[in-house]
Amino acid sequence: VSLQGVKTRKAFRSVTSQEQQLFVLDSLSVPVCETYSTCDAPPPLNNLSKYRDDGKEALKFYTDPSYFFDLWKEQMLQDTKDIMKEKRKHRKEKKDNPNRGNINPRKIRTRKEEWEKMKMGKEFVEPDRKS
Question: Could you read off the pLDDT of 89-114 as tens digits, one per residue?
């Protein structure tokens, strides 16, 4: 690859456009559209909504298009709560650990100390213990 070829090449740009309205009647394939047209319509339960005390639509108890999204959302919220609870538990265990502050760090040896030991002779120098 030449230097001129590198300079003239355009930078990579990803496409971030998203397809929308995938599940509208116009975008359905012919077999799915035929099956959809043969289905029965839901019963007219919305006529009963005015008699409900809680204000919810009566048809939602028969068919709810947002059911799976709501189920997924609740599951994600529960997972988030569980993760946060686990983090709090882990943080508390870390605080309650009695050995946390009792760590004895390794003594730092300097060249000066090594030379001081070697003044007396090599036979008096302790060998390094790596364990």
Answer: 888 877 777 666 667 777 888 888 88
